[in-house]
Amino acid sequence: MQQQISVITLGVGDLAVSRRFYVTGFGWTPVFENDEIVFYQMNGFVLGTFWKPSLEKDMGRTGLVAPGAFSLAHNVPAQDDVAAVMERLVEAGGRLIRPADAPPHGGFRGYVADPDDHAWEIAWNPAWAIDDRGHVTFGL
Amino acid sequence: MQQQISVITLGVGDLAVSRRFYVTGFGWTPVFENDEIVFYQMNGFVLGTFWKPSLEKDMGRTGLVAPGAFSLAHNVPAQDDVAAVMERLVEAGGRLIRPADAPPHGGFRGYVADPDDHAWEIAWNPAWAIDDRGHVTFGL
Lengths: 140, 140
Prior knowledge:
The structure is a homodimer of 140-residue chains.
Chain A: E1 7-12, H1 15-25, E2 32-33, E3 37-41, E4 46-51, H2 52-59, E5 70-75, H3 79-91, E6 95-101, E7 108-113, E8 119-124, E9 129-130, E10 136-137
Parallel strand pairs in A: 1-4, 5-8
Antiparallel strand pairs in A: 2-3, 3-4, 6-7, 7-8, 9-10
Helix pairs in contact in A: 1-3
């Protein structure tokens, strides 16, 4: 089977509030949106922000909770970008979880929650290559 | 800012149980592993399965819960692949959430939870292109 993930779908409570965070905070552009979902074309896959009751209906189970045991990371090209991006995200409706500092494994990172308490790590990791299409390659 | 996600990190309770699901169920190969984390190189980004207490420590907050309000999707090339992949995932330690059927928006899909109750949608969506490197493009 392909080593491939096609979509990351986040359950959201208010599509407009979530959209503001992603469009204003990250500066991303939706590729499709209706009154239930907003899709963003990402680096080799698709991000969806889906009204949580609709996600639960599609999944066939209710009781999805936050904060879930996961995080998403957006890596930036320079150490100084980390705090700057985190500040933009907070201005766009995010909430600071952990201020940026240097973890034991190297680099520099902090965490911001999106309006639905989904965690975003903003990280500078010089060992992981990012090409001009945004494709990220693991490195040591 | 690049429209880019670098890492999806899932919090897991037992690395070996999680590894069995991803390696045996999906057939994926880790690019790195130690006693705290397993990384998989994916289609333009990296998937990490991180021991949940270590994820909470890195994030600077405890109390991450499941099932979180999100899902990941793995799209397959043919409708008949959906149930076959779901069966493999259940044999590898997953749990059926929703048997495969046709959603109102088209295609065919079902949901399986990984051993940590993270939801995977297995989907056939002929409108979304998947190239030979596994890169997925939104389509209508």
